């Protein structure tokens, strides 16, 4: 008979307690981290903001995947890649000719994302390029992404693509 695992405990630190100078954290791997009250408070706020960022990014990916799928007749591939401190949504058209309707839809998408308070932690740039071949596509992608959307970073949970129609 297996015993139920013990309930995990939470430690509550009262950061306003003037007697608390800081905390030493022992993750069990031989490292010790001594953190001041101020650092712990800032880390907590950053962790909360990071969780919100992850939620926003997941919602944006879903929105971009739907947007791309709805235009599968004119989009060959679409990538969402990190470029410095912002994301770029790169759309590869099926044709080589300028597509005003796609450009207008992409501009509307860009404005909708920028004005959506649900994406306030995300900076997005959009770009459509014609189908001029794999070398051209590759020149717009970071080195960790090949033109088929695969990432060579094994630690990524999801490839950095918005989706292919």
Kindly name the structural category. alpha+beta
Low-pLDDT windows of residues? 151-165
Annotated CATH topology of one domain: GMP Synthetase, Chain A, domain 3
Shape: elongated
Average residue pLDDT: 85
Q: What's the CATH C level of one domain?
A: Alpha Beta
Distance between the termini: 50 Å
Q: How many strand elements?
A: 5
Proportion of residues in β-strands: 15-25%
Helicity, in percent?
Answer: 25-40%
- Total helices: the number is 3
The main β sheet shows up as: 3 strands, mixed
CATH architectural type of one domain: 2-Layer Sandwich
The side-by-side strand order for the widest beta sheet comes to: 3-4-5
Element order: H for helix, E for strand:
EEHEEHEH
Radius of gyration: 22 Å
Topology:
Blueprint: E1 22-25, E2 33-36, H1 37-69, E3 75-83, E4 86-93, H2 100-115, E5 124-129, H3 134-139
Parallel strand pairs: 4-5
Antiparallel strand pairs: 1-2, 3-4
Description:
There is one protein chain. The chain has a domain at 55-165: GMP Synthetase, Chain A, domain 3, CATH 3.30.300. Strand 4, helix 2 (100-115) and strand 5 (124-129) form a beta-alpha-beta unit. The longest helix is centred in the first third of the chain and has 33 residues, at 37-69. The strands form two sheets. The protein has a three-stranded mixed sheet with strand order 3-4-5, with helices on one face. The protein has a two-stranded antiparallel sheet with strand order 1-2. The chain has 165 residues and is an alpha+beta fold. It is elongated, with a radius of gyration of 22 Å. The protein is 33% helix and 19% strand. The protein is built from three helices and five strands, in the order E-E-H-E-E-H-E-H. The model is unreliable at 151-165 (pLDDT under 50).
